[in-house]
Specification:
alpha+beta; two-stranded antiparallel sheet; globular
């Protein structure tokens, strides 16, 4: 017999959404610029076309200005989160779930996440507001970030975006040539039914 964890899965999804909204609302109140990136940004964009195609994620990734880190720390600690500094990342953990994979992960705008990355992370002027008020990285910049990172789940996110028709020719043409080639390769290696609308 398989033990069903569906209710726990649902609660985990809700917990991530609450953490995202609590964090975003606190930063907005303090007028600190940010952009939702990563799996939540992909979910917001995919959900704008097909809510049933949305993939869940277990953390909150935000793009921020490194110069704002002291202000961000004050704001996020004021809502009960705890700062943890790692070698290449600053994150904030919820004491109720102090798992480094489930916290708020900060990435610096205009800086490379890894020295080997082809391009730096986007600027914070590349944001749009979602219909429910979140500041989200614009689609072209998000796609470029995913292509630069090029991990397994980044490729899955790109397939999700492509499958609902969000990766248009205009978006492709705006990418640097090496990233256009990488995107073509990712799509060519994916089963055709994953790319059907």
């Amino acid at each position: 017999m398989i033990r069903s964890n569906f209710s726990e899965h649902t609660m985990a999804v809700d917990r991530v959404e609450r953490l995202l909204r609590r964090t975003a609302e606190a930063l907005d109140r303090a007028s600190i610029p940010y952009a939702v990136i990563g799996g939540n940004a992909v979910a917001i964009w995919v959900g704008s076309v097909d809510p049933e195609a949305v993939r869940t994620t277990k953390d909150v990734d935000l793009l921020v200005d490194r110069a704002d880190i002291d202000r961000i720390t004050l704001v996020l600690e004021s809502i009960g989160l705890t700062r943890v500094d790692l070698r290449r990342m600053t994150l904030f953990l919820d004491p109720e779930r102090p798992d480094k994979k489930s916290g708020v992960h900060l990435f610096w705008s205009d800086m490379k996440v890894w020295p080997s990355n082809l391009t730096p992370a986007p600027s914070l002027d590349r944001t749009v507001r979602s219909s429910d008020g979140l500041s989200v990285l614009d689609l072209a910049a998000l796609i470029q970030m995913k292509l630069v990172a090029d991990r397994y789940h980044d490729r899955a996110h790109l397939i999700d975006l492509s499958s609902v028709g969000l990766i248009t020719q205009t978006v492709r043409n705006a990418l640097p040539e090496p990233l256009q080639q990488r995107l073509t390769q990712i799509e060519s290696e994916s089963p055709p039914d994953l790319l059907e609308e």
